[in-house]
């Protein structure tokens, strides 16, 4: 995943957009559903409220809204797209791919479209693959979406997970870089032996959906949160440092760190270990919770709109999620 230097072959981000459902669920709403408190949730996770999709809204609907905004920002029409990658762990259905549903809805033609499943790290994975497609000459204009509706696989009786999970989508348009700005480096990693710590046990080919699997609640997201926590911080630190090194940069060069928004304490610990002060860290977990593959583009879009990102800025993005997967990307804006 290393390119020795910026060259004409790599990609740059030419448009960014995001979308979240209108429905807001506060910690006080959750207090009425499970044995928890606003105080516990805020202290342990940093979350105050999150957006939850209604019954009619699926991952492709949020993907579409985010994609339209990113394409508008980029000044790119659907006809110009060469590839659509949707990173998601909560596709509309197992197949066809959510990327194909999006391709149809956008009206894109003659375009490669596929889903990518890397849990909460999906957006970083998607960006790396999109960058690679452009470098390999497989296309000039690639749409990368990170989108999840985790609420659809949430067990609303499980206080260890339901207070964290939320819905959203973010999208970028990539084009060949013809100057200093672009994706400088990406680092991707995984460790499948840790998969059982964060998984959706049934509904796939190992345990197809049956009345029993539904009755046992095996279609819900299951997580051993405190074990995930420990691993997440170490992995995100390592990945950020590796990606920085590949780009020939150090933590002092980072203008903005955009970490996956899983838990404020994970973000704080990662930033501290990497050596980036919190004033240069992007967080919106207080208002959005954990939106999985959407969290990085959602946070970055907010930072961009708030004027926190300027041309030439070095942005470090890092994520960790189910698989386990993790990864980082260094971008010169
Ligand atoms: N309200 C009140 N008490 C709670 C709640 C809650 N919502 N949830 C758990 N508790 C209790 C536990 O039962 C436990 O009680 P006990 O001591 O009596 O047994 C106590 O709080 C401590 O539980 P821990 O799990 O040790 O709490 P921790 O400080 O680790 O916080 C949390 C839990 C928030 C889940 C944290 O571990 C976390 O954020 N983990 C990482 C999650 C993550 O990053 N996931 C990856 C991304 S998700 C994806 O990829 C789709």
TrEMBL record:
One of its GO terms (molecular function) is beta-ketoacyl-acyl-carrier-protein synthase III activity. SUPFAM superfamilies: Thiolase-like (SSF53901). Residues 244-333 form the Beta-ketoacyl-[acyl-carrier-protein] synthase III C-terminal domain. The active site is at 120, 260, 290. It is found in: Cytoplasm. GO terms for cellular component: cytoplasm. Pathway: Lipid metabolism; fatty acid biosynthesis. InterPro entries: ACP_syn_III_C, ACP_syn_III_N, FabH, Thiolase-like. One of its GO terms (biological process) is fatty acid biosynthetic process. It catalyses: malonyl-[ACP] + acetyl-CoA + H(+) = 3-oxobutanoyl-[ACP] + CO2 + CoA. Keywords: Acyltransferase, Cytoplasm, Fatty acid biosynthesis, Fatty acid metabolism, Lipid biosynthesis, Lipid metabolism, Multifunctional enzyme, Transferase. Residues 261-265 are annotated as: ACP-binding. Residues 114-192 form the Beta-ketoacyl-[acyl-carrier-protein] synthase III N-terminal domain. Its EC number is 2.3.1.180. Pfam families: ACP_syn_III, ACP_syn_III_C. Belongs to the thiolase-like superfamily. FabH family. The last Arg residue of the ACP-binding site is essential for the weak association between ACP/AcpP and FabH. Homodimer. PANTHER family: 3-OXOACYL-[ACYL-CARRIER-PROTEIN] SYNTHASE, BETA-KETOACYL-[ACYL-CARRIER-PROTEIN] SYNTHASE III, CHLOROPLASTIC. Catalyzes the condensation reaction of fatty acid synthesis by the addition to an acyl acceptor of two carbons from malonyl-ACP. Catalyzes the first condensation reaction which initiates fatty acid synthesis and may therefore play a role in governing the total rate of fatty acid production. Possesses both acetoacetyl-ACP synthase and acetyl transacylase activities. Its substrate specificity determines the biosynthesis of branched-chain and/or straight-chain of fatty acids. This is Beta-ketoacyl-[acyl-carrier-protein] synthase III. The gene is fabH.
């Amino acid at each position: 995943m290393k390119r020795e230097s910026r060259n004409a072959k790599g990609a740059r981000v030419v448009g960014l957009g995001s979308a979240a459902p209108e429905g807001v669920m506060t910690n006080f709403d959750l207090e009425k559903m499970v044995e928890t408190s606003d105080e516990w949730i805020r202290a342990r996770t940093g979350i105050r409220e999150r957006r939850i999709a209604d019954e009619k809204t699926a991952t492709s609907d949020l993907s579409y809204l985010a994609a339209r905004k990113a394409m508008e920002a980029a000044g790119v029409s659907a006809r110009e797209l060469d590839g659509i990658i949707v990173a998601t762990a909560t596709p509309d259905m197992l197949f066809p791919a959510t990327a194909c549903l999006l391709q149809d809805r956008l009206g894109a033609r003659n375009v490669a479209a596929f889903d990518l499943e890397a849990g909460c790290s999906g957006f970083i994975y998607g960006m790396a693959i999109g960058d690679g497609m452009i470098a390999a000459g497989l296309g000039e204009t690639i749409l990368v979406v990170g989108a999840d509706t985790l609420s659809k696989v949430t067990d609303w009786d499980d206080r260890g997970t339901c207070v964290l999970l939320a819905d959203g989508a973010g999208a970028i348009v990539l084009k060949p870089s013809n100057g200093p700005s672009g994706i400088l480096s990406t680092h991707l990693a995984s460790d499948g032996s840790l998969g059982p710590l964060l998984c959706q046990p049934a509904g796939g080919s190992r345990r197809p959906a049956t009345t029993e699997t539904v009755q046992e609640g095996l279609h819900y997201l299951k997580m051993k949160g405190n074990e995930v926590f420990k691993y997440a911080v170490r992995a995100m630190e390592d990945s950020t440092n590796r990606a920085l090194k590949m780009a020939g940069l150090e933590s002092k060069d980072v203008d903005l760190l955009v970490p996956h928004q899983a838990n404020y304490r994970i973000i704080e610990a990662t930033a501290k270990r990497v050596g980036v002060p919190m004033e240069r860290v992007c967080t919106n977990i207080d208002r959005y919770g954990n939106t999985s593959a959407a969290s990085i583009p959602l946070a970055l879009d907010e930072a961009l709109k708030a004027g926190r990102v300027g041309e030439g800025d070095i942005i470090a993005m890092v994520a960790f999620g189910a698989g386990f997967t993790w990864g980082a990307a260094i971008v010169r804006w």
